[in-house]
Amino acid sequence: MTGSLWVVVDPDNGVPPWRQVRDRLVHLIRSGALTPGAAVPPIRQLARDLGLSAGTVARVYRDLEASGLLVTAGRRGTVVADLPPSADPPAPPPDPLAEAAARFVAEVRALGAGRIAAVAAVHAAWPD
């Protein structure tokens, strides 16, 4: 799985990019979308996919290792740790529409277009 399909960083939402990546990975792990033993992308690959520095992604991985959510597994790289049973109910599944919208917004911004142009494009593309 590539970073751009499961993590989106919005530089304009006020939350630091490292925190956005961390929160998304925590959600994916807690919801079961990333299962124990599942490999996460190498630091440099995820950084490149998200347009972040390797140091930013390394900070996220260190934080998640310290939290017991990730472990370094030698040649296997960094993987999701075995999670202890939790009294908390599993997190709700991610909203696919919200995720698609976030990807769309990221692409629109990369094109240099604004909100009004993006909404107009959606209206124009939507069949009646």
UniProtKB/TrEMBL annotation:
InterPro entries: Tscrpt_reg_HTH_GntR, WH-like_DNA-bd_sf, WH_DNA-bd_sf. SMART domains: HTH_GNTR. It holds the Pfam family GntR. One of its GO terms (molecular function) is DNA binding. Signal peptide: none annotated. Keywords: DNA-binding, Transcription, Transcription regulation. SUPFAM superfamilies: Winged helix' DNA-binding domain. Residues 15-83 form the HTH gntR-type domain. The keyword Heme does not apply. Gene3D superfamilies: Winged helix-like DNA-binding domain superfamily/Winged helix DNA-binding domain (1.10.10.10). It comes from the Bacteria. This is HTH gntR-type domain-containing protein. It comes from Saccharothrix espanaensis (strain ATCC 51144 / DSM 44229 / JCM 9112 / NBRC 15066 / NRRL 15764).
